[in-house]
Structures are given as C-alpha cells and as structure tokens.
Amino acid sequence: RMLELDLRAADFDKEFELAFQPIINLQSKAVTAVEALLRWPGCQRGHVTPDEFIPIAESTGLIVQLGAWVLEGACRQAMSLPGKVNVAVNLSPSQFRRGNIVDTVSTVLAMTGLPAERLELEITESLLLDDSKETLLALNRLHALGVLISLDDFGTGYSSLSYLRNFPVDKVKIDRSFIAEIAGNRDHMAIVSAIVNLAHALEITTIAEGVETEEQLLIVRATGCDAVQGHFFSAPKPAAQIRKYLEKPH
Ligand code: G
Ligand code: G
Ligand code: MN
Ligand code: NA
Predict the structure, then answer these.
(1) Which domain range does residue 181 map to?
(2) How many domains does the chain have?
C-alpha cells in the first residue's frame, strides 16, 4: 500500500497534528480533560483519516514511534493549556506489544513536566482480551506512576465485567453507538444506566462519548453518568481553538 510508504517517510513534526476534544464534567460543568486525536494534514496523498492510517501504523509497527510523538505533543499541550486540564491519549495494543510503553510514558512525563495524574491513557478491550501477564504488568506499572487508565469504546467489544475488576481501570468511556440511539431506544438507555451503575459500584468514573444533541445530554445526565464528550460541546479542534474554548466562560 502506498500509504505505508508515505507513513514510513513522514516527518512527524512537519506532517502530523493533534486535535483536541473537550470532556465536560456534568456536575461542575467544567472541562476536566481534552482527548488528543491524531491528524495527518501533511499527507501527500490528500485527506486521510485516522481510521485509514492508524491500522497501517499498527501493522507496520510505526505506531510505536508515532504514538510516542502523540504522547509527547499531548503532554506538552496539556502543560500549556489553561485550567490544568487532564489530557487523554489513545494507545494501540501494538504500543504495549512492540514498544516499551511504561518507559515511553515515564520519559515523556519527565521531559514535559506533566504530573502523572493529569495523563489519561485510553485503551481498548482488545488489549485486555488476550489476558497476557505482560499487559497486566504494564498497566499496573503505568497506574503506579499515577496515570489514569480509561477503557475506550466500552460496550462494543466483549465488555467482560472481569476486565473492570482485574485490570486497573479508572474510567470507562461508553461507546457513542449507545448514545447515538439513546433518545429513541429504551434498551440503550437501560444499557447506559447499567454500565454507569456497575462502574460506580467499582469506583470507576463514566464518560459518555458522541453526545450530539441536548436531548441526548439530558438523558445521559439522568443515568448518573459523570462526564460527556461530543459535538454538542465541541468537535476535536486544533490546540489554538481549544485554548479559546477553555478561556471563555460557559
Ligand atoms: O477523531 P477520530 O476520527 O479521530 O478517530 C478515529 C479513530 O482513531 C478513533 O478510534 C481514535 O481512537 C483513533 N485515534 C485517533 N488518534 C489516535 C492516536 O493518537 N493513537 C491511536 N492509537 N489511535 C488514535
Ligand atoms: O475511538 P475513540 O473514542 O478514541 O474515537 C473518538 C472518535 O469519535 C473520533 O473519531 C472523534 O472525532 C469522534 N467523535 C467525537 N465526538 C463525536 C460526536 O459527537 N459524534 C460522532 N459521530 N463522532 C464523534
Ligand atoms: Mn478515545
Ligand atoms: Na471511544
């Protein structure tokens, strides 16, 4: 694939950018974190989405270097954004399997000066699925550094309840497919409520993803969910725009 050659040849600093999307706490109504999302505006081949290039970065192993670049950039931005917001960074399973993620994270924290408590690492159930000792060890070490672990896209995979008990999970992000239909579908509201209650029983915080309308926001709030993210508040935006969003009162 040609994209693979472009990715191998890419100068990350010149071609890639991070977008940031606010995560809003429903009690305080404050932005408590921003999620960093990778963009490739400098790609020679024109517009490519992360859903196209991230799988290639994963299969080639380039995600180890690219992921370290994302971590560093995200932590640097978190240090410079107002309001001491946390930053959430997506991690691929290959960053655990092919790279030394614990060393990478501790190096980036030391280099940028970001307190570990302000970094949230988003992992997916696919990482936990093969139940490896190495993965558990790495997650426990990351947690011991003080970083928070979020389980992303929750509800779409196996959603084994044992994951929430056996791994150091601080937050679950309820997949946006449940939120998309929450207004017209009682089953979806019941599922979201059940996830929120289960998480809270285990002292895990909940975030609803993909909130696009006020109606969805009100229903999500009624489930007792802690935080929301989605286009209703803001799409992922370049750091300069997110800075403005954080500076203006809500
Ligand atoms: O905003 P959206 O189109 O950015 O993201 C599409 C997918 O790409 C999502 O599943 C998201 O988690 C993933 N993604 C975005 N940025 C990163 C990143 O820096 N690292 C990894 N591993 N995945 C990312
Ligand atoms: O897999 P992950 O949750 O990391 O991916 C986040 C993805 O969700 C990104 O592609 C981001 O652009 C997208 N996203 C964020 N908010 C919304 C929203 O309100 N609606 C939709 N459809 N997508 C969203
Ligand atoms: Mn995510
Ligand atoms: Na997600």
Answers:
(1) 2-247
(2) 1
Domain with residue 166: its CATH number is 3.20.20.450
Closest ligand 2 atom, residue 232 Cα? 19
Whole-angstrom Cα distance, residue 18 to residue 74?
Answer: 7
User: Tens-digit pLDDT profile for the chain (250 aa)?
Assistant: 789 999 999 999 999 999 999 999 999 999 999 999 999 999 999 999 999 999 999 999 999 999 999 999 999 999 999 999 999 999 999 999 998 999 999 999 999 999 999 999 999 999 998 878 999 999 999 999 999 999 999 988 877 788 899 999 999 999 999 999 999 989 999 999 999 999 999 999 999 999 999 999 999 999 999 999 999 999 999 999 999 999 986 6
Q: How far is residue 72 from each of residues 26, 89, 117, 170, measured CA to CA in Å?
A: 29, 10, 15, 22
**Of 184, 207, 185, nearest to 196 (Cα)?**
207
Question: Whose alpha carbon is nearest atom 4 of ligand 1?
Answer: 37
ipTM for the predicted complex? 0.97
Q: Which of 15, 18, 37, 127 for a ligand 1 pocket mutation test, highest count of atoms within 8 Å of Cβ? A: 37
